[in-house]
Amino acid sequence: MGSRMTGRVVIITGAAKGIGRGIASVFASEGAIVVIADVDEKAGKATAAALAETATVDFVRTDVTSRESCEGAVAAVLERYGRVDVLVNNAGIYPQAFLHEMSEADWDRVFAVNVKGMFFMVTAVLPHMRQRHGGRIVLTSSVTGPITGNPGWAHYGATKAAMLGFMRSAAIEVAKEGITINAVMPGNIVTDSLEDLGQDYIDALVASIPMKKLGEPEDVGYAALFLASNEAKYITGQTIVVDGGQVLPEGATAVG
Ligand code: NAD
Fold first, then answer.
1. What is the CATH number of domain 9-243?
2. Average confidence score pLDDT of the chain
3. 237: closest CA among 142, 159, 169, 161?
């Protein structure tokens, strides 16, 4: 147990499972009061209960595609804990769809969760952070879109690049108010949703990663923790890639 986040109130969206759960566990292990904001009530409450053995971890049901739900979640956290120090905007979906089969509804759904959800959550916490003249926002983007491409994920890659475009302008808007906005860019991290893509897919991924293994949710959590820490107070509008070197090779021969 560390104390880098002692007493800080941290909202993490999409933390019922996967990377968000890993981020929640890292912040909880550093003394934060963690609020899991997720649409999956059953998994969210179970994760909160599991992590609450060693820390204060709460759950607020939140559907990030609804502005009302996002504002309600922030209001509930302010009522319960009186402050929000950190927002980790992590909720995201990545259903595979090739261009020839991608419907308008597929496109809209991925943008609604990944981009509009971020806009709703960030604008929901900003009035409070502005009033207190301080706050940290960390976005979970991805290498897919901003750096790399992957067949079947054109809509998803577009959302993850859009998040960084949003971040750069938003970071300037709030810079004078003591608020920073940065992003983590995971490579391939072990989660249920990734495992659902099948062992063949995972084996091919591992072969392309210089470290020859997938990342763990906590690897992303520690990068988010740094961006939310006092040590990162002069960093805004920036990104940290967490990918075991996956974006580095010039070609297959460079990986070995
Ligand atoms: P996951 O499916 O394991 O978890 C996603 C969580 O988001 C779930 O708990 C889900 O209930 C929640 N969620 C989905 N829609 C929501 C909504 N409308 N409102 C609130 N919560 C909602 O996924 P993951 O792999 O942990 O991905 C988390 C984030 O990390 C996403 O933004 C994803 O794009 C990003 N990411 C993942 C990887 C990876 O390898 N797993 C790589 C790069 C980026």
1. 3.40.50.720
2. 97
3. 169
